[in-house]
Amino acid sequence: MTTSSIDLEWKRFTLQERISRFAVYLVIVVSLVWSWQSVEVIEEFLYDAPEQLLDMFQRMTPLDYAFYPSSIHDALIETLHIATLGTLITLIFAVPLALLNAPNITPSKTLNWIAQFFLVATRSINSLVWALLFIALFGPGVIAGIMAIAIRSIGFVGKLLSEALAEVNMGTIEALKATGAPWGSILVKGYWPQVMPAFYSIVLFRWDINVRESAVLGLVGAGGIGVVLNDAQNLFQWQKVAMVLVSIFAVVIVAEIIAIQIRKRLI
Amino acid sequence: MDGLAKSSAKHAVNPFKASLLNRALWLVVVAYIFYSASSLGLSLERILLGFSESERLLTRMFPPDFSRAGLLMDGVAESLQIAIISSFFGIVISLFIGLLAARNMMPIMITAPVRAFIALCRSFHPVIIAIIFVKAVGFGALAGILTLIFASIGFIAKLFAEAIEEISFNSVEAIRATGASFFSVIIYAVMPQVFTRFIGFASYQLDSNLRNSTMVGIVGAGGLGGTLFSAFQRFDYDFVSAILITIIAIILVGEMLSNLVRRIF
Q1: Into how many domains does chain A fold?
Q2: Can you give the residue range of the structural domain that contains B24?
Q3: I need a surface site. Which of B70, B90, B131, B225 has the fewest CB within 10 A?
Q4: Could you give the angle at which helices B126-137 and A192-217 cross, rounded to 10 degrees?
Q5: Global pTM?
Q6: A27 domain-assigned
Q7: Does some domain include residue A223?
Q8: Which DSSP helix (H) or strand (E) runs through B246?
Q9: Beta carbons of A124 and B232 less than 8 Å apart
Q10: Which of B40, B53, B211 sits opposite A137 (nearest CB)?
Q11: pLDDT digits (tens, 9 = 90+) for A47-105
């Protein structure tokens, strides 16, 4: 063995790694330059922005507190109902899809892929777009909002739940199988106790996200606080807009705190 | 014999006891559904009527109409530009903000206000931020870019700060012992430990900006969302389905690319 076969210089990465990393950097730079040169941005508007923002904040203050009891409160409750009902309806679709997608429960590769397709497809389309579609079906209103939230959440809940199902300890499952338990009992007594904490924390997490999402659904007419926001904004009533924004902020924070507290108790 | 009797007594108890808490929870859920359905005025026939309309909607959506490909491509290009520019600036700004928010690197005087700012960016939905920026800079791509920069800061600055807080301090102390400056500590001790995770967050954020850039157009902040919204308003459902297919295709390609990047690093 000669010393010539040993690298004289220590290199952290192999040649292939360096080439592929360089390719990634190159693609990033090229795409950045392309977008920078072709995006239609009027620069004067950017320089004008601080002045415009200041103007908006001046119009927003003082907040229109009287607007809260008259219309914001009911709309906020409606928003919370949309988020909660949407999250509950999601489970009807997400749980079966998660069971189909978990390879240790459904051994068939084809069924796994079909479930995977539905999970990805529902997740890829934004809730506002789902809301537009459901408004075409149900007309403007709360039902469209609930359905939009429900369908949009399927992908998230289903994916996380099927990952939790795939990670369960198979020992108890095999023990149950050995006793000749039917598949229903295996699911309820074998899988469910193991995924229960994950299940509740996924549902709470999604509920928290859904409260945020349902607050904007009204912008396209799907009920909730967004409708009030859209009306106030279209009439340039900035003081009311500011009041709505503050209320949304408060509700979102409270929802997050509730979700965190419940999760702490559960796990 | 004594032990045997005890164990048989134990078996008399059902080992698979139903959990009372669970049952109570289900009861609450069912009660809530009835309460909220009545307070929102939901009725089964209204829902069934809506589902019976779905056939009409689907026949109008298919086949998708790709004849206005020029308009579609303009929207796609603008969405891509918004996503790329906002991801770049969002990630670069988050690098600094994340560092400022890491409690093991900075005194609490700095981390507390920076963390409050991150929380503020996170708690508003991108669409609401977009409304404010549309007012500030007018309709168009610029509003979308600024919106998504803020949305990115809310997400990756937080994750990046958490990643920095989890690093091992041994190498930081070793580099500090050589008398290195603060920036050398960052570059040689902190960055190597968090770089791969950072790439993961960044590629995830590019993905999520791509999704959101197809949405902010609904309130006038540029991109494919505007095209989609006007197609909805004109009841051009065949064009709507063409746009939706394009969005799903873009997102799938984006996911593949970000997986590729994650595998390289």
Answers
A1: 1
A2: 17-52
A3: B70
A4: 20
A5: 0.81
A6: no
A7: yes
A8: helix B237-264
A9: no
A10: B53
A11: 887 888 888 888 888 887 888 888 888 889 999 999 999 999 999 999 999 999 988 88
